[in-house]
Amino acid sequence: MPFPTLPDPGAELVISGSVVHGEKRGRALGFPTANIALAPGNPFPPEGVYCSVARFSHRDTLYGATVSVGTNPTFPDIASIRVEAHIHDLDELLYGLGAELRLLRRLRDMRRFTSVEALIAQMESDVRQSRQLLVDRVPGRLPPGQG
Length: 147
What we know:
Layout: E1 13-20, H1 25-28, E2 34-38, E3 48-56, E4 63-70, E5 82-87, E6 98-108, H2 116-137
Antiparallel strand pairs: 1-2, 1-6, 2-5, 3-4, 3-6, 4-5
C-alpha cells in the first residue's frame, strides 16, 4: 500500500482516533505507547517516526510525543500498520480515550534493527530529538516538563 508523502519536511499533519490495546511491547522496552486506531477518514501518514504533540479527550493539555507509524519491522509477528505514540512525561491508562496527534516533523524512516538493544538505543535517540524539537518549535505551549 503506497503512503502519501508530506508536502515538505516542515509540513504538519493532524490525525485522530481512539486509544486501543496493543501488545504492550513498547512498555516492556521502556517506552509505553498509546496505540491509536485512526478514526474513519483519517489517512495513514507515511511510515516513519515523528516528533509530535498529543491531546486526549479527557483534558485539554498538550503533551510532547514521539510517534511511530508502520509495521514494527524488527518484530516479524506484526504485519499491520500501526500508529503508536510514546507520550513524554505521562504515565496514565488512556484506553478508550479520543486522541489527536499533530505530527510536526518526520524524524526518520522505519527500519529493521539487528537487536532489541539497537532498537532501544535508537528509540532513546528519537525521544531526545523529539523533545529538543518541541522545545524549539512549540515554546510556551506545553506544561513544564512536557517537551
